[in-house]
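Quarterly update, task 2.4: nicotinamide-adenine-dinucleotide-bound model.
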Amino acid sequence: MPKVLVSDPIDQVGIDILSQVATVDVKTTLSPEELIQILPEYDAIMIRSGTKLTKEAIEAGKNLKIIGRAGVGVDNVDVPTATRMGIVVVNSPEGNTIAAAEHTLAMMMSLSRFIPAANQSLKGGKWDRKSFTGVEVYKKNLGILGLGKIGSHVASVAKSLGMRVLAYDPFLTAERAEKLGVNLVDLEILLREADYITLHLPKTKDTAHLINAERIAIMKDGVRIINCARGGIIDEVAIADAIKSGKIAGIALDVFENEPLEADSGLRELGDNVILTPHLGASTEEAQTNVAVDVAEQIRDVLLGLPARSAVNIPGLRPDVWQKLKPYLQLAEMLGNLVGQLAGGRVDTLNVKLQGEIANSESQPIVVAALKGLLSPALRERVNFVNASIEAKERGIHVTETRDPSVEDYSGSIHLTAHGNQGQQSVTGALLGKSEIRITSINEFPINVAPTHYMLLTLHRDMPGIIGRIGSLLGNFNVNIASMQVGRRMVRGEAVMVLNIDDPLPSGLLDEIVHIQGVTDAFVVKL
Ligand SMILES: NC(=O)c1ccc[n+]([C@@H]2O[C@H](COP(=O)([O-])OP(=O)(O)OC[C@H]3O[C@@H](n4cnc5c(N)ncnc54)[C@H](O)[C@@H]3O)[C@@H](O)[C@H]2O)c1
Ligand SMILES: O=C(O)CC[C@@H](O)C(=O)O
């Protein structure tokens, strides 16, 4: 049984799913050192935002196949290291959308009506109504930074509260914003016009300290800010200063530059107009069930050899799409392996052409499969679907993609062309029925060969006697031929022969074959 480590509190439903296929250890109080010490034992790890999977931790996880993040943000995972090590990283992109949006709205209302402070005051024995006169959100401007899943839900609720919604999101189309009934504006306009500003974007090098002293200075006096996205998008020192000066009327933070927030953080000292929650955006029963199921199912599937539906470092495939593409992925991998062996030396460019019924399919997984096949003779089990693209890039292999739906020889086929330091080679493959793989051309010579473990390929002149001579040579060396195919474009022109052989070719025999008169080249292929 594979072993899965659950290192943050996860809903029991997730543990039950994992237990169907693995031994599950739940250890939620590990120090970073303890984590590094035990990670080599595990095939998978499931985390929330508490566990930090640093480069060092991931490198210690020598047997890890998958990292499951029960939530959206993967900023606590060193994804490039995982990718380099061929570890799939999956998340739950939608499981906690509503929870985070509702927490944001609750923060906005709490800021407007001083609910936490009024509650504290009343429980402290007072009946103070004067200190807690709030403001209405009705007819106010809400500025949303990042109009993705959470931002969009906040926008639609805010509109129904009678707010005017402005959004800044450089990656969003004007059509999408219009459909949401939101005014898409420049950052500066949003900062100048908003009465409330809420953040819903990822933390990247471009968004770090996006809200800083300079940008606070151009905001309306009395603005209220909410951050339920990620700590560090706001400069905490700058907002604390702006609260103290009265420039900002209120701020509600669910996320912090350092989590857990330091016990002596200055933010804890600020007044009633500052509301702090300990990263609770995703903490609803419903969201925790959603993310646990979503991620546990993906870990279970990957441990069973199935694809993940929302991997962040490989193309995620829906099960129905995967069922359809699976035989083509196997075909692409075999063809990549074949064309790489024919190319012999270094490959600089690989063209992947999707033909017939798959011409309009998602190409990325097929390209990745072809690259995995291409690199597998050199990298063996070190290359997989996760790191094939990176490994190819690091080796300077440039990938191009083309599509031709008009090719109708087979229902769907894949054509690969590899250019390298030893020239150009091309292969085509198709499926017979639903899943039987056939090689249907080599260097544009039509053939129809079922690939086998050992194959001998020759390029030769189509003339009497050549095939017999090659056959006798193999017989002399006790190599058994299982089947044979010849492809040619014209009688007595150039031809290709593919022999499926039962045994590996003894050393020196290939050289003898190449020296037969009329043979221009010969290759031994091991698939
Ligand atoms: N507090 C919590 O517990 C909690 C829960 C869930 C999600 N989150 C966080 O909330 C954030 C949003 O999550 P989501 O699911 O809506 O993500 P999403 O990917 O659906 O949306 C993010 C949006 O940000 C936009 N964006 C990216 N860079 C930007 C930039 N420089 N300026 C403006 N917009 C930019 C993107 O175009 C996208 O539309 C993430 O940081 C996520 O980690 C927090
Ligand atoms: O794990 C959590 O509770 C927080 C999750 C949240 O930050 C996310 O990005 O999905």
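Highlight for this quarter: The chain has a mean pLDDT of 94.
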